[in-house]
Every structure is written in structure tokens, then in C-alpha cells.
Design goal:
alpha/beta; 16 strands; 5-stranded mixed sheet; 14 helices
């Protein structure tokens, strides 16, 4: 019970601070002596600070409480297919430092773990003065969240990587591992001061398509940690073949490579577009980034492709809205950078397809966290364990 009360008080301060002890007691229905005792322990642990005096309501001004965001620090990592991105953040999510380590084209499990360890060690060495409390990892592919094992990383063709075990042994810090899109989703939720009843979905659209789902303030993993593989729901029965073997998956319509294929088809049809010259000049295969650059340069074909992509995204998001009815949906990944061209079409499509007025008005927005969004979200996984779990910080055993 003490642990539960501590969690309640800590999160009340996190989401509503500055807040007084009296207000905490009133809002949580805990007794003032209980609140006072647990707040004292939280101050001693270094998680909570007494700040300015609040407004008096007929007596002595109350002392307000806030989270001490600057004492403890976390390292968050995004382990993708080509790069390990790492950040050092404080408890507010403020990014103090960031580094990137390229992943070789061919790499073994042991070599990948060593690369991750070197990346973490570099940040630790650069910030010896910072007090670290944990490491979070957003790993692409399928992850066993309980054991912290990367079961399958398709982009690296690796299986059964014991990330949690290896890193906890190496650094003697709490390590949390989850799928990269779920990590991104939890970061968006956590650092927006999400409430307990928030239901939100992050849809990451890049080389592939996946989702992170937050229900009632908790990451939803599904029975076997597979929740969020929405890129493989069928949108077009007669569509292109997907990497999964099926036809017409959402991913074959809205991913970066899918946008590139659509652009290539327009070129072969003889459409007037600068995309043809861009490919000839760079000697590279068309992808979503080329199309975005052409659209920004005013190319009508590229703009039309991205508009159509927005329409297809809208179809899939309408399905999500009807299944999950989230408070909001946030789009991340490289394709989301084309916000000016895709977002109007997305909203227009949902406004036509969704069943109710409220569903039609579901908030849709693009993430502003950039390429380090997953790494920052991975750090939030550690914060979730500290603020909503039993992991003690700054407390004597």
C-alpha cells in the first residue's frame, strides 16, 4: 500500500506540480500525515523539490512541490536498421546530449551488443558528473518486453539478442527494452504530461509502418507483444505484394518505398516531373524523400503523389479510430515530414469516412520530436518504471 500511495503522490506532483501537500491530500483522499510522510521520503530521495510559496487561503502560505528534473539522468537508445541513436535526457525529457553510431551492413548479435555498449559508454564518459538511473532501448522488430530480449530484428536479420541481461551486467543500471514504435508512443504520451485516462496512437511511417498504442495511460502490448503491426492490415485486395507475402497491405501504399514506387510508375507513364531528372542526377532509387523534395520544389506530380498518400493514410486511420477510438493520433517517421502535403488529405478523408461527428474530429497531428523521437521515448520507458512501478531511486535499501 505504501508503494501505491507513493506512486499516486509522485505522479500527482509530476502532472500537476507545483502543488501543495494539502491539495495532494484533498485530491487523492489520502490523509495529510500520510502525504506529509511520503513527500518527505520523496524529497530525501531527490525526486521532489520544495519550490515557491503558494497562494494562502486563510493562513500560512503553502509550500509547493515539484519534480526535481535536474538531478537524475537517463540514457535512451533507438536501435534501428542502419543507426544506433542515443540521447542523454533529464527527468523532463530535455535532451542534454545526443550521439549516433552507424551499424555495419552485416553484423552479429555479439557485435551489435558491443556497439550499443560503446555508444552508452561514450555518453557516460562525456557526462561523468551526471547521476544515471537507467537505460531505455527502443528496438526495431519483435521484442519480449519482460525478458528484454530482441526476438527478431528483421532489418538486421538477427534473433534472440539478450539486450537487458547484457547491459544490466555491464552498466549495473536498470534497463528497459521495448519495440521502437511503442517507445516512441510512450515518449509522446509521457512528455506531453498525459493523463491516466489518455488513449492515443502513434503511427510511425517510414520504410515500414507500425503503431504504438497507449490505452488508459499504459502501453498496450497484446498477448504476445505483437500489438501495433498495423502496416499489414489489408487496404487494397488487388494491391501490390507486401514483404509479408500478402497483397494490398497498408504498408504497400503509404511507406517511403511505396511512395517511391508510385513515383517511378508516374515517370514510366511519361508524366512531366522533375523526379526523372533528380533520379538521373543522383543515380539512386526513388523513395519518399525524393518525392518530398520535389513536392517542396513545386512539382505537381510529387504533390499529387503525397496527396494520394495522405488519402490512403486517412483510410487506415479511420479503421484505427473505429477500433480504438483514441483521444488523438500522432504521426511519426520520415513520411510524416511531408505534413503540408499529407495532413490536409488525411483529415479530409477521416471527415468523410468516420462514423460519428466525434470520430471525424479525432485530433491528428505530426510529431515534432524528429529523428531522436524513439531514443527519447526509450528514456521515458525508464521513467514509467520509476514513477509508476516499484523501482526505487535515491533511497537507501
Amino acid at each position: 500500500m505504501k508503494s501505491l500511495n507513493r506512486m499516486i503522490i509522485l505522479n500527482k506532483i509530476r502532472t500537476e506540480g507545483p502543488i501543495s501537500r494539502a491539495s495532494i491530500a484533498k485530491q487523492t483522499k489520502l490523509t495529510p500525515p500520510t502525504v506529509s510522510k511520503l513527500v518527505s521520503e520523496l524529497i530525501t530521495s531527490g525526486l521532489v523539490l520544495e519550490s515557491e510559496q503558494g497562494e494562502s487561503v486563510g493562513g500560512r502560505k503553502p509550500t509547493m512541490l515539484v519534480i526535481d528534473n535536474t538531478r537524475f539522468h537517463i540514457i535512451g537508445l533507438d536501435v534501428g536498421t542502419k543507426m544506433v541513436r542515443a540521447v542523454l535526457v533529464d527527468l523532463s525529457g530535455f535532451m542534454i546530449d545526443k550521439i549516433e553510431s552507424p551499424i555495419p551492413l552485416s553484423i552479429s548479435k555479439d557485435s551489435l551488443v558491443k556497439l550499443i555498449e560503446r555508444t552508452i559508454s561514450k555518453l557516460l564518459h562525456l557526462h561523468k558528473d551526471k547521476e544515471m538511473i537507467g537505460i531505455g532501448i527502443g528496438m526495431h522488430g519483435v521484442v519480449d518486453v519482460t525478458s528484454g530480449i530482441s526476438l527478431y530484428a528483421p532489418g538486421l536479420n538477427l534473433r534472440d539478442i539478450p539486450l537487458k541481461e547484457a547491459l544490466e551486467k555491464k552498466f549495473e543500471l536498470l534497463v528497459k527494452v521495448d519495440n521502437d514504435v511503442r517507445a516512441m508512443a510512450f515518449g509522446e504520451y509521457w512528455f506531453s504530461n498525459g493523463k491516466k485516462n489518455d488513449n492515443m496512437v502513434i503511427v510511425n511511417i517510414g520504410r515500414g509502418v507500425g503503431a504504438g498504442i497507449v490505452l488508459n495511460g499504459k502501453l498496450f502490448h497484446g498477448e504476445h507483444d505483437l500489438a501495433g503491426e498495423i502496416g499489414h492490415m489489408t487496404i487494397d485486395l488487388h494491391g501490390r505484394r507486401c514483404s509479408c507475402g500478402n497483397y494490398g497491405c497498408w504498408e504497400t501504399l503509404i511507406s517511403g518505398p511505396a511512395i517511391g514506387k508510385e513515383a517511378q510508375q508516374r515517370i514510366e507513364e511519361g508524366r512531366e516531373t522533375i523526379l526523372k531528372d533528380m533520379v538521373a542526377e543522383n543515380g539512386e532509387k526513388l523513395d519518399g524523400e525524393f518525392v518530398y523534395k520535389a513536392a517542396m520544389a513545386g512539382d505537381k506530380v510529387a504533390q499529387d503523389i503525397l496527396g494520394k498518400t495522405g488519402e490512403y493514410i486517412g483510410f487506415g486511420l479511420t479503421n484505427l479510430i473505429h477500433i480504438l477510438n483514441p483521444t488523438k493520433i500522432i504521426l511519426g517517421g520520415g513520411v510524416a515530414h511531408a505534413e503540408p502535403f499529407i495532413l490536409p488529405k488525411i483529415k479530409e478523408t477521416i471527415a468523410v469516412k468516420a462514423l460519428t461527428k466525434q470520430a471525424k474530429e479525432t485530433e491528428i497531428l505530426c510529431s515534432k520530436q524528429g529523428v531522436f523521437a524513439t531514443a527519447i521515448g526509450a528514456a521515458a520507458l525508464v521513467l514509467g518504471e520509476i514513477f509508476e512501478g516499484d523501482f526505487p531511486v535515491g533511497e537507501e535499501s
